[in-house]
């Protein structure tokens, strides 16, 4: 689990530091047929993008609910 969390932290840090679009960062760090892009394709097949969006929306909704109580 440590490797996975370090990858996520590294990606977030790169996005914050560079201001680049996540798609551009993906292109910068992956190679055709490499391990990273293969993993990204699996995430996409599993609906990762939509799931991530749902997580953010649900958390924001809950923050609003908690702030009103």
TrEMBL record:
<dbReference type="InterPro" id="IPR053790">
    <property type="entry name" value="P5CR-like_CS"/>
</dbReference>
<dbReference type="GO" id="GO:0055129">
    <property type="term" value="P:L-proline biosynthetic process"/>
</dbReference>
<feature type="region of interest" description="Disordered">
    <location>
        <begin position="1"/>
        <end position="38"/>
    </location>
</feature>
<keyword id="KW-0521">NADP</keyword>
<keyword id="KW-0560">Oxidoreductase</keyword>
<dbReference type="InterPro" id="IPR008927">
    <property type="entry name" value="6-PGluconate_DH-like_C_sf"/>
</dbReference>
<comment type="similarity">
    <text>Belongs to the pyrroline-5-carboxylate reductase family.</text>
</comment>
<dbReference type="GO" id="GO:0004735">
    <property type="term" value="F:pyrroline-5-carboxylate reductase activity"/>
</dbReference>
<protein>
    <recommendedName>
        <fullName>Pyrroline-5-carboxylate reductase dimerisation domain-containing protein</fullName>
    </recommendedName>
</protein>
<dbReference type="Pfam" id="PF14748">
    <property type="entry name" value="P5CR_dimer"/>
</dbReference>
<feature type="domain" description="Pyrroline-5-carboxylate reductase dimerisation">
    <location>
        <begin position="3"/>
        <end position="66"/>
    </location>
</feature>
<dbReference type="InterPro" id="IPR029036">
    <property type="entry name" value="P5CR_dimer"/>
</dbReference>
